[in-house]
Amino acid sequence: MRRLLIILFLIFFIKNNYAQNNIDSLKNLLQTCKNENQKIETLNDISWAYRKKNIDSSLKYGNLALEMAKKSNNKKQISNSLNKISVAYLLAGILDKSIEIQLQALKIREEIKDSVGIAQSYDNLVISHQYRKEYEKAIFYILKSEKIYLKFKDTAGLRRCYSNTAAMNSKIKKYREAKYYQKKSFEFIPKDNLRNLLRYYINFGNIYIGQFQMDKLNFSLLDTALYYYSNGIKIAKKLKDDRSLGNFYNSMGAVAGLKKDYKKSLEYFKLSYLYVKKMKNIYLEKNILNNLSQNFAKRKQFDSAYYYANSFKEISDSIISIEKNKQLIEMETKYETEKKEKENIILKKNKEKQEETIQKQKIAGFSILIFLILAIIIAIWFFKLKRKQEKANKSLQEKNIKIKKQRNEIQKNHRRITDSINYASRIQNALLPNEEDFKENLKKHFIFYKPKNIVSGDFYYFKKINEYIIIAAADCTGHGVPGAFVSMLGIAFLNEIIRKKEIKTAAQVLEELRIYVKTSLKQKGENYDETKDGMDIAMCVINEKTNVLQFAGAYNSLYLVRDDELKIIKATRNPIGIFLKEKPFVNNIIQLNKNDKLYMFSDGYIDQFGGKKGRKFQTRNFNKLILKISNENFSEQKQILDKTIEKWKNGIEQNDDILIIGIEI
């Protein structure tokens, strides 16, 4: 036992001496640094070198690097320093603090898009959560680092990532996921990398042992574990890795024991013990001594069982002694670290209070001076303002008299204009078809007419000549007074065409109307400045006896609802008026059935802005609405159309004239 403690001390002394030489070299380098960036990097290196030797010193140099990095606002160096401090707390066992600081480092690395640093932070968070046995959180960060390794095609990182995910899933007894990720890790192991292959076989064997603990009747799982351990032994022998050989034979002994093959189990444990003794690893030796003792006990060889049990107790006592010393050192380090942190916080708060007091005194003195200067300026400004105000009041009285006269004149003019427009509205309404004509010839119909202003650019037309019923819905250029002028021209021209000309087709009426509009508005297409006014129109001519419909349209189409289906009879894409690519209007002939419903309309309803987002009502919504209301009686259809568009406006002003005509055959 004494010899064992001497060997452990010598190993510690050699490692400690090497680490100290490295630290001394870095401290000498610190004295020769030429700029701030080099100093920060060297301080971080010293902090890293101290991490396993002296946690207090590691934190000291890490915090010095952090302060310098913050002053120079070097975000990459700030994140590196935070990472070093986090690892120091991790090794000290202060896991909450380590995670808190590592998350700060991660946030900065994400801001500056430092992909390598982000992956490093994820890896350190994995270790912290693993120590806290928070395996699912560890898996969360492993899978986040996987995305970075995939992006940069880092095969070593991906192998480590999948191997760690397999280990974490094994800890939480998700063996199917563990096997999946362990196999994925195998894809990234180079064939000549025996060390990584060795870890692969160890991990896979352990997964199958864990799975057997849940399904103890499935002995094939033990055979699979032995297969992986046997492959691992071949590689460990090539590498002359005594530690791995000791672990493999120990695991195989445990598997043989589970299969109740105690003779084979003893052979494996003895082989394991030979390698572990050669390594002088007391922790592994303790485990194997316990296994040997239990094996002999199961074979009822109690003398041998007692011998190994006694050896197990001796080595356990020595480990407890070492662990206690280690815990005392860790506790002392943790206490000193927390104590210094609290002292630093108190000093910092005191310094901040002193600075705050001085700052308040400066602000108070400066505020008094500013107040006096402002008071003088305000007094001068108030005196001048008073004089200006007296002059302004006099000028304002004179202006108010002029404004009052102008306002009275404007009001008179407004009344005259409004009276004129109202009179024009009466004229326009007089020109529109009489409701009685509609009722007499069309039993079921509605006219939804909603001008934007007092007068409208939309108009509807009705005429009965012999067995023909002529109905039209038109939308003239503009709205209000300009639109009304064009609409009255349209009504007059239609009356003239239908009265004087022999009616052959609906398309012929539109061709004649186009000639009238172009002639009266002097549209020749020769001058850029000439008027482009005109109208869009849907024209229907229905033979009462045969129920044959002729339809022609200038941009405005006709809707036919038959058997709960909506059919659109498309118009010719030409206006009534001058047009660059003028073409003849198409005359559509349709045999109507009883209960067919026809709808003619302008674009005012479809183009109305409203709804939650202030958008147009749109054609698809209008089509759905027409089809939905088509089975209602016509007065109800009109009410629904009115309520729907008013609700749609949602406080927005009507932007165009609205006209919809519905009839049933």
In terms of topology, how is this protein built?
Layout: H1 2-31, H2 36-50, H3 55-71, H4 75-92, H5 95-111, H6 115-131, H7 135-151, H8 155-171, H9 175-186, H10 194-214, H11 220-239, H12 242-258, H13 262-279, H14 282-298, H15 302-431, H16 435-441, E1 445-450, E2 458-465, E3 468-476, H17 480-500, H18 506-520, E4 535-543, E5 548-554, E6 558-562, E7 565-569, E8 588-591, E9 597-601, E10 609-610, E11 615-616, H19 619-629, H20 634-649, E12 658-664
Antiparallel strand pairs: 1-12, 2-3, 3-4, 4-5, 5-8, 6-7, 6-9, 9-12, 10-11
Helix pairs in contact: 1-2, 2-3, 2-4, 3-4, 4-5, 4-6, 5-6, 6-7, 7-8, 8-9, 8-10, 9-10, 10-11, 10-12, 11-12, 12-13, 12-14, 13-14, 14-15, 15-17, 17-18
Characterize the overall form.
Answer: elongated
Strands ordered across the widest β-sheet: 1-12-9-6-7
What fraction, in percent, of the residue positions are helical? Answer: 55-70%
Radius of gyration: 47 Å
β-strand amount: 5-15%
Distance between the termini: 113 Å
Number of DSSP helical runs: 20
Integer average pLDDT: 82
Count of strand segments: 12
Report the structural category. alpha+beta
Largest sheet features: 5 strands, antiparallel
Low-confidence regions: 1-18
